[in-house]
Specification:
The protein is α/β, with parallel strands linked by helices and 202 residues long. The protein is built from six helices and nine strands, in the order βββαββαααβαβαββ. The chain is 32% helix and 29% strand.
């Protein structure tokens, strides 16, 4: 469903991706770690079609949803409307489903608020709810759970794990608990090269 083949990307003289290849099918959840500024977000943007690789190619079979490190909410509509705006079909059913997603993310009391009225952490959770509401085939997420407290994070990860069973997913995360809970495969981007992390590695 998502295939990156021999992706290379440089910014000036600095190479951030060198011959990176990655293939994900339905049910694959890849968690990618690496140093800050090491090319992880660039790889995700190339996978999403938002950045052009210098060489290599990307193949995608299905719809794509992206959760950025910044929330990118629509400022002129409510939290609930930010979620329902990506949904198709019956409006009443969409509202019910959106409310369920917001509840899962601890945002039931914020559904009628506007983005300017909520914290950055809450805004990040709204962006997750919106991506899940779109019900894409491929999910690309840049540190989506970093703003959650530990108790809420564990509950959300349980729900995400179930949801992602039928998706192809690439998550950027430095959180070991997230990787342990969600990943079916783990990678580290180091010196512009993608390396698979075996289960017995830290």
């Amino acid at each position: 469903m998502l295939k990156l083949s021999d992706i290379t990307k440089s910014f000036g003289e600095r190479c951030v991706l060198s011959g990176v290849s990655l293939s994900l099918e339905k049910g694959d959840v890849a968690v990618l770690s690496g140093i800050s500024g090491g090319g992880k977000t660039t790889l995700l943007r190339i996978a999403a079609g938002l950045e052009k690789a210098d060489s290599g190619f990307v193949e995608k079979d299905g719809t794509v949803a992206v959760v950025f490190a910044e929330a990118r909410l629509f400022p002129s509509v409510s939290v609930l409307e930010n979620v329902t705006c990506v949904m198709r079909g019956d409006k009443r059913e969409n509202v019910k489903r959106a409310e369920k997603l917001l509840s899962m993310l601890g945002l039931s009391d914020a559904k009628d608020l506007y983005p300017r009225e909520i914290s950055s952490g809450m805004a990040a959770r709204v962006s997750i709810a919106r991506a899940l509401a779109y019900d894409a085939d491929i999910y690309l997420l840049d540190e989506p759970l970093k703003s959650l407290d530990e108790a809420l994070k564990m509950q959300v990860m349980q729900d995400l794990k179930e949801f992602f069973k039928t998706k192809a997913v690439l998550i950027i995360s430095h959180d070991e608990a997230e990787a342990e809970m969600l990943a079916t495969v783990r990678y580290r981007l180091c010196d512009s090269v993608l390396m698979k992390i075996e289960k017995d590695e830290p």
